[in-house]
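Deliverable D2.4 — example input (structure tokens):
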């Protein structure tokens, strides 16, 4: 996919230099409201169909090579939790004792078709140890974020007018505040072009997640969205917390289970029960809402995982602190059991070199096995740090005081 900078320069839309620091922001040029898609739905950003195919084949070859690694690196082993219990737990948070676990996802060829590629960068499975930490019980809500903004006067990335010096050559009319919004077509479309369902909308921000005519009034208990990475980081600092590492996030999401495809176990719908807010119907044009919601849902409407955490799959994507690299898991596997990994030193996405991306986890209300199945625990998303969307939020963690 074109970078946001390219889109801004071409007049197709406004874009920020890095792709999804928050999924680079882009603007629709006058008369050209062509989908400036930020493939947020799972952070899979490929410039063209040929690049997608080439990348997929490269990664499949890498997966085949990794399959020959020792059993420790390619299969799940039991989680070994710590026994520590804190004296007190901060309000609205859950104690995650930490310990050693197997991180990653099983390779699934049927999950790697066009648009999905759910497991190509989640291999090899490797052993990781994390110290104990507290995690927010739910995603940060609109009400909580509003309290932060009221106390600090903070202005999110989506609300700021882009600077011309950040987008050399961009038409002035493209330099307007706004963000990326899911805009489904009214008919079935080919899934090899996400420009057909993502667009940049001027005036879209956390208060107006689907555009200037939308509102969060009466939705204080919904997860806040249209949040760029620096917005989430600013909130966390104000709250005396931080964003989780990718390893912390996955340890918490698994809820003590080892090697399960979902945060609740083996079956997507145990006993026919909906366990997460995902997409039903035909993607991207029709969401039937069989799980109870069309689009985003309030927090904590589905059962918690084994640690008491809500919405660790589906509803909205969640930022982590780690830079994204597709080869990072191989680096960890080569080191044996790694303690408290903090992610690579820098970002690299071979499909969009030069874009500063962070790892996102959990999937969203747009996840479906028709296109992107990243509600599967262990799979990964990615996004430019400067871009938010209407299905991207976050939650925070806190280390215990020593």
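Example output (designed residues):
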């Amino acid at each position: 996919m074109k970078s946001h900078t390219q889109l801004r320069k071409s007049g197709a839309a406004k874009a920020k230099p890095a792709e999804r620091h928050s999924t680079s922001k882009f603007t629709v040029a006058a008369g050209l409201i062509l989908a400036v898609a930020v493939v947020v739905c799972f952070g899979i950003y490929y410039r063209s169909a040929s690049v997608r195919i080439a990348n997929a084949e490269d990664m499949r070859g890498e997966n085949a090579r990794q399959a020959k690694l020792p059993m420790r690196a390619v299969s799940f082993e039991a989680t070994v939790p710590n026994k520590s219990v804190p004296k007190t737990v901060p309000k609205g948070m859950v104690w995650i004792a930490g310990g050693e676990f197997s991180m990653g996802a099983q390779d699934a060829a049927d999950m790697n078709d066009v648009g999905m590629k759910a497991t190509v960068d989640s291999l090899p499975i490797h052993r990781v140890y994390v110290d104990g930490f507290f995690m927010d019980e739910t995603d940060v809500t609109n009400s909580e974020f509003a309290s932060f903004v009221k106390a600090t006067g903070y202005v999110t990335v989506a609300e700021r007018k882009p600077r011309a010096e950040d987008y050399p050559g961009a038409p002035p009319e493209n330099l307007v505040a706004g963000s990326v919004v899911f805009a489904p077509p009214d008919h079935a479309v080919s899934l090899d072009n996400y420009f057909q369902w993502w667009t940049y909308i001027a005036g879209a921000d956390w208060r107006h997640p689907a555009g200037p005519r939308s509102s969060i009034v009466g939705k204080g208990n919904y997860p806040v969205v249209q949040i760029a990475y620096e917005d989430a980081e600013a909130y966390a600092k104000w709250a005396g917390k931080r964003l989780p590492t990718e390893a912390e996030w996955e340890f918490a999401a698994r809820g003590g289970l080892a090697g399960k495809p979902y945060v609740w176990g083996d079956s997507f719908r145990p006993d026919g029960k909906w366990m997460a807010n995902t997409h039903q119907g035909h993607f991207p044009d029709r969401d039937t809402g069989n799980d109870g919601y069309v689009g985003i849902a309030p927090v904590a409407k589905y059962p918690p995982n084994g640690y008491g955490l809500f919405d660790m799959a589906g509803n909205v994507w969640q930022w982590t602190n780690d830079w994204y690299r597709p080869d990072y898991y191989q680096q960890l596997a080569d080191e044996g059991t790694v303690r408290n990994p903090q992610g690579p030193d820098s970002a690299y996405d071979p499909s969009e070199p030069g874009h500063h991306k962070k790892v996102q986890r959990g999937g969203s209300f747009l996840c479906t096995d028709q296109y992107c199945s990243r509600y599967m625990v262990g799979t990964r998303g990615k996004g430019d740090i400067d871009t938010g969307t209407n299905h991207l939020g976050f939650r925070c963690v806190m280390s215990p005081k020593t």
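Confidence is low (pLDDT under 50) at residues 1-73.
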